[in-house]
Amino acid sequence: MTHSYRTPIIPLLPCVLIAIGAFLLATAQPAHAATCSDYPTQAAAQFAGDTIDADNDGIYCESLPCPCSTAPPGTTAPPATPPLSTPPPAPTPDEGETFTYHGTITKVVDGDTLKVKVKGRVKTVRAIGIDTPESKKPGIPVECGAKEATSSAFKWAYKKQIDKDGDGLYDAGKKPRKVTLRTDPTQGKTDKYGRLLAYVTRSGTNFGLNQITRGWAEVYVYDNVPFQKLSAFQAGQDKAKAASRGVWGACGGDFHSAQ
């Protein structure tokens, strides 16, 4: 007698249900749980939206570096590479910086202005903290003590001084000296004429202070902003005035009277 066997349907149902459930889970989730460390930036994690949003604020992996995003996951593709951040603006030279240059004098312009060659370029340098009688200012006659102030500058600036016109004052020189130029953070780096504002020194002596102590310059405070060496310059002026040196004796202390 031939017997036919049939597999009962009911015992197979649990197995079928388990297989369907496993399939659904496999298609609904990634093969492995994503973590923040799987993404290079917060924007990339935000776009994927498959990590844990611990505080339920809609922002994923807030600890990751930017570029960042708060857009709903999948709505905006993350940038391929992080954009370069914009650097803060560089401070202007007048914002508390000190600049130092080393060069060689090429010309004496007048009692408070020199030309100095620095790394192949000539800078016009206005000495900080002093003012001398005018000798070359347009519309202004030569002032009392102007030629003497210029002569004093030549004596300081050159190892060998020359009196070309025989008036007893130096108006040229040879063997120019090497100097150091240093700006003052309390002052501007340049003036309205584009001249470098600096202390000019050589072998420990300050050009501006030398002019003051010899009586051919007076202390000058621009726009009521004290410069760093004001007290030393003021002391030098007091001594020159007391001794009636330079303009203090020859011109009654008036540095801008006509000669």
Structure explained in plain terms:
The protein is α+β, with helices and mostly antiparallel strands. The chain contains six helices and ten strands. The protein has helices at residues 13-28, 42-48, 146-157, 207-213, 230-242, 247-250; strands at 100-110, 113-118, 121-127, 130-131, 158-162, 172-176, 178-182, 196-202, 205-206, 218-219. It has a five-stranded mixed beta barrel with strand order 1-2-3-8-7. The chain has a two-stranded antiparallel ribbon with strand order 4-10. It is elongated and about 90 Å long. It starts with 12 loop residues before the first helix and ends in a 9-residue tail after the last helix.
Strands, count: 10
Q: Assign a percent range to the helix content.
A: 10-25%
Q: Structural class, from secondary structure content? A: alpha+beta
In terms of DSSP E residues, the strand content is 15-25%
Please trace the helix and strand order, writing H or E for each element: HHEEEEHEEEEEHEHH
- Which residue ranges are poorly predicted, with pLDDT under 50 across at least 5 consecutive positions? 1-10, 25-31, 82-93
Largest sheet report: 5 strands, mixed, barrel
Helical region count?
Answer: 6
Mean pLDDT: 83
